[in-house]
User: What shape does this take?
Amino acid sequence: MAGGREFSSSQRKIINRYYDNIDNIVITRLGEIATDMVLAMGDAKKLDRLWKRAEQALAKVKTKDGTKDPAIEKMLASRDLEALGKLITKLNR
Assistant: This one.
Protein backbone atom coordinates (compact mmCIF):
# COMPACT_ATOMS: atom_id res chain seq x y z
CA MET A 1 0.00 0.00 0.00
CA ALA A 2 1.44 3.34 -1.00
CA GLY A 3 1.37 6.13 1.56
CA GLY A 4 -1.71 5.14 3.57
CA ARG A 5 -2.52 7.42 6.47
CA GLU A 6 -2.90 6.06 9.97
CA PHE A 7 -5.41 7.92 12.12
CA SER A 8 -5.50 7.86 15.89
CA SER A 9 -8.60 6.46 17.56
CA SER A 10 -9.88 9.95 18.43
CA GLN A 11 -9.36 11.12 14.84
CA ARG A 12 -11.25 8.07 13.53
CA LYS A 13 -14.14 8.84 15.90
CA ILE A 14 -14.31 12.42 14.64
CA ILE A 15 -14.26 11.25 11.02
CA ASN A 16 -16.94 8.63 11.68
CA ARG A 17 -19.19 11.16 13.45
CA TYR A 18 -18.83 13.52 10.49
CA TYR A 19 -19.98 10.87 8.03
CA ASP A 20 -22.74 9.68 10.38
CA ASN A 21 -24.14 13.22 10.46
CA ILE A 22 -23.47 14.30 6.86
CA ASP A 23 -27.21 14.60 6.15
CA ASN A 24 -27.71 17.09 8.97
CA ILE A 25 -24.59 18.99 7.96
CA VAL A 26 -25.80 19.32 4.35
CA ILE A 27 -29.29 20.43 5.45
CA THR A 28 -27.82 23.08 7.75
CA ARG A 29 -25.47 24.27 5.00
CA LEU A 30 -28.35 24.51 2.52
CA GLY A 31 -30.40 26.52 5.01
CA GLU A 32 -27.55 28.98 5.46
CA ILE A 33 -27.08 29.26 1.69
CA ALA A 34 -30.81 29.89 1.16
CA THR A 35 -30.77 32.63 3.80
CA ASP A 36 -27.77 34.24 2.12
CA MET A 37 -29.59 34.07 -1.23
CA VAL A 38 -32.55 35.98 0.15
CA LEU A 39 -30.23 38.63 1.55
CA ALA A 40 -28.28 38.84 -1.72
CA MET A 41 -31.29 39.49 -3.97
CA GLY A 42 -30.25 41.99 -6.62
CA ASP A 43 -26.56 41.02 -6.59
CA ALA A 44 -26.24 38.63 -9.55
CA LYS A 45 -22.58 37.74 -8.94
CA LYS A 46 -23.20 36.80 -5.33
CA LEU A 47 -26.29 34.79 -6.27
CA ASP A 48 -24.28 32.87 -8.88
CA ARG A 49 -21.68 31.93 -6.26
CA LEU A 50 -24.40 30.90 -3.80
CA TRP A 51 -26.16 28.72 -6.39
CA LYS A 52 -22.83 27.01 -7.11
CA ARG A 53 -22.40 26.33 -3.38
CA ALA A 54 -25.96 24.98 -3.23
CA GLU A 55 -25.24 22.72 -6.20
CA GLN A 56 -22.13 21.37 -4.46
CA ALA A 57 -24.08 20.69 -1.28
CA LEU A 58 -26.95 19.08 -3.19
CA ALA A 59 -24.48 16.78 -4.95
CA LYS A 60 -24.19 14.97 -1.62
CA VAL A 61 -27.95 14.43 -1.41
CA LYS A 62 -29.09 11.09 -2.79
CA THR A 63 -32.47 9.41 -2.87
CA LYS A 64 -33.08 6.21 -0.92
CA ASP A 65 -32.13 4.09 -3.93
CA GLY A 66 -28.82 5.97 -4.31
CA THR A 67 -29.65 7.98 -7.43
CA LYS A 68 -29.92 11.73 -7.91
CA ASP A 69 -33.37 13.25 -7.63
CA PRO A 70 -34.47 14.75 -11.00
CA ALA A 71 -36.40 17.45 -9.11
CA ILE A 72 -33.07 18.74 -7.77
CA GLU A 73 -31.66 19.03 -11.29
CA LYS A 74 -34.78 20.88 -12.44
CA MET A 75 -34.64 23.24 -9.45
CA LEU A 76 -30.96 24.00 -10.06
CA ALA A 77 -31.60 24.67 -13.75
CA SER A 78 -34.42 27.11 -13.00
CA ARG A 79 -32.68 28.56 -9.91
CA ASP A 80 -35.98 28.59 -8.05
CA LEU A 81 -35.38 29.81 -4.49
CA GLU A 82 -38.87 28.79 -3.36
CA ALA A 83 -38.27 25.23 -4.60
CA LEU A 84 -34.95 25.19 -2.71
CA GLY A 85 -36.77 26.18 0.47
CA LYS A 86 -39.34 23.42 -0.02
CA LEU A 87 -36.57 20.91 -0.66
CA ILE A 88 -34.78 21.92 2.53
CA THR A 89 -38.01 21.51 4.47
CA LYS A 90 -38.58 18.10 2.89
CA LEU A 91 -35.04 16.96 3.70
CA ASN A 92 -35.33 18.23 7.26
CA ARG A 93 -38.14 15.78 8.06
Q: What stands out?
A: The helical segments are 9-20, 22-39, 44-58, 70-78, 81-92. The CA atoms of residues 14 and 20 lie 10 Å apart. The chain has five helices and no strands. The longest helix spans residues 22-39.
